[in-house]
Amino acid sequence: MGSGTDTGAYAYEQKVAVEAAEEAGALLSARFAKAHTVGSKGDGGDVVTDLDLAAEEVILARLRTHFPHERIVSEEAGLLEADGSRTWLVDPLDGSNNVAIGLTAYAVGIALCVDGSPVVGVVHEPVTGRTWRAALGQGAWCGTTRLGGPRAQLPRCGPVLAWTQGHSVSRSDVRAQALRGALELHSRRVLQLWAPLLGWTMLASGTIDGYLGYRAEAVDFPGGALLATEAGVEFRSLSGGPFRVGFDGPDSGRSFVAARGEALAHLVDLASAATGGTPAAE
């Protein structure tokens, strides 16, 4: 894996997660051109491909081999129940809608949560072969490079931001419309990637300035958010209050602003104004 997180707490768990993500990524890359849709989820048009299922099988096999008595929540398989406080979160193909139309913007995500909070986060991008990883209190890394997160200063031409929303958010959701509209008006660019984990790698690497999420998905959010947190990113609720990163609870508890310094204040102001500035709006 390189330096930084090869030893210390959760080193073994991180090693297994990296190996599983990279094995699944190799499968996705090899079969990308022949991917086909096998189903859909929700009413918003989100799809499931044969590659989702194949990559998931690879990852679950590794996790069950190394951690046979631990709970797993996977994007397609759902909850694989077990006792204890540890839960693995698996997104075998983040960006299924992109893959279905031949767009090479996708990733593999694996996270470990203890008592609902992330302690390991791994994101692998098959297209470039890069893997980002973080363990609680040990920084965020890509290869041997420790990630420093985004700059604290607000760019004069406006920030570049990423946006994510959960599958259950409808096109007619007025709060989502207000948030996206405010971002478009007051930012240089807003990335809507259909692959939220890629946004987290960019934020942790400092190539974008902030991230705003509305009712984010439980499976891919915690691992990506840990990468950002370990790179120095701060989180707030849409009204500017404290925010806890986790996967449990309703999706209304996963609406957030993530940035640092002036950019964080700028995003909180935009989000608060767009949602009326009240916790109920979150």
TrEMBL record:
Organism: Streptomyces bathyalis
MF terms (GO), sorted A to Z: inositol monophosphate 1-phosphatase activity; metal ion binding
List of residues binding Mg(2+) 2: L93, D220
Pfam families, per the entry: Inositol_P
Protein name: Inositol monophosphatase
Keywords on record: Magnesium, Metal-binding
SUPFAM superfamilies (UniProt xref): Carbohydrate phosphatase
Biological process annotations from GO: inositol metabolic process; signal transduction
Claim: Magnesium is one of the keywords in the record: yes
Obligatory cofactor(s): Mg(2+)
Domain of life: Bacteria
Residues reported to bind Mg(2+) 1: E75, D91, D94
